[in-house]
Amino acid sequence: MARGLSRDLAREKNAKKGSNDKNAKGNKESLTPAQRAERDAKAMAEKKALKEAQKAKDLATGKLTPEQVKEEEMRKAKMREKQKLSQFASNNPLLAKNLVKK
């Protein structure tokens, strides 16, 4: 293969790679940080509403029992508490060490 041809092929390949970033969020829409945060918050709220609707549907159809829902919520609460403690420990190692000793 001629050297010039391989360069041309590489350029074409790289040009194709760059054109597939249509779904990348970033600042390509020229949004301010506040607008981007609002957009993301709206998307998260929609996602949460869909999950709540699915949970209600599962409860109504009998796929889930109220006990299962309660157990899942407790498990998630424990996980969040563990994450908070872990984050606190990484930010304040000496304080976390003293808390664990007591």
TrEMBL record:
Residues 1-38 form the Small EDRK-rich factor-like N-terminal domain. Residues 1-28, 36-60, 68-84 have a biased composition (Basic and acidic residues). Residues 1-102 are annotated as: Disordered. It comes from the Eukaryota. Belongs to the SERF family. This is Unnamed protein product. It comes from Bathycoccus prasinos.
